[in-house]
């Protein structure tokens, strides 16, 4: 495998949840390369997943959860339930890392590495939702998003793919998330 090559685009299989997760992970590689993306890292217990993806880049810890809808349930109700679930998962991921229950991560290129959590001063959560829905404000559906000790962004898979195609360097992508967080408190919706 070439150091700067991405993994091949995921093969589509019968499990829709796995498809969207693999596509989102592949998009992360577009901005962060294989070096910094840890796909489905193992959690504290063997066989348990820490997150759908972890990105360790410079002083940034990016924790990613992907949720996809393939039911006839109302999209807003589905989003509310699944964003809440992803939020709980991200809090658990962060706790596992901060409390050092998980101190090693593995990726295809670097193998297993030790994680010195003190090196990562900026913790960011990213919830990617793959579903067809009219636009909504995630913080209105799940007010707990505003009350977290670290920023958490909710974005559709479609918008995520557009972002990484335009912000195709790690620095640009992280700056965009940080700017998005800075303006979030200043934006009002009518």
Can you characterise this structure?
With 190 residues, the chain is α/β, with parallel strands linked by helices. 39% of the residues lie in helices and 21% in strands. It has five helices and seven strands; from the N terminus they run H-E-E-E-H-E-E-E-H-E-H-H. The protein has helices at residues 16-36, 75-98, 138-141, 157-166, 170-184; strands at residues 37-39, 53-57, 60-68, 104-107, 111-114, 122-130, 152-156. The strands form two sheets. The protein has a five-stranded mixed beta sheet. Helix 3 links the parallel strand 6 (122-130) and strand 7. The longest helix has 24 residues, at 75-98. It starts with 15 loop residues before the first helix and ends in a 6-residue tail after the last helix. The mean pLDDT is 88.
């Amino acid at each position: 495998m070439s150091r700067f090559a991405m993994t091949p685009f995921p093969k589509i299989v019968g499990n829709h949840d796995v498809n969207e997760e693999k596509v989102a992970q592949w998009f992360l590689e577009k901005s962060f390369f294989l070096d910094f993306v840890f796909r489905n890292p193992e959690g504290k217990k063997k066989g348990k997943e820490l997150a759908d993806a972890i990105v360790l880049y410079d002083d940034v810890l990016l924790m990613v959860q992907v949720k996809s809808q393939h039911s006839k349930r109302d999209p807003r109700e589905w989003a509310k339930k699944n964003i809440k679930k992803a939020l709980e998962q991200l809090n658990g991921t962060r706790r596992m890392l901060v409390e050092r229950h998980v101190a090693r991560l593995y990726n295809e290129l670097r193998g297993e590495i030790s994680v010195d959590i003190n090196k990562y001063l900026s913790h960011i959560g990213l919830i990617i939702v793959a579903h067809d829905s009219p636009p909504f404000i995630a913080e209105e559906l799940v007010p707990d998003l505003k009350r977290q000790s670290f920023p958490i962004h909710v974005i559709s898979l479609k918008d995520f793919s557009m972002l990484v195609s335009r912000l195709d360097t790690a620095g640009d992508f992280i700056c965009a998330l940080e700017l998005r967080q800075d303006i979030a408190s200043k934006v009002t919706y009518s």
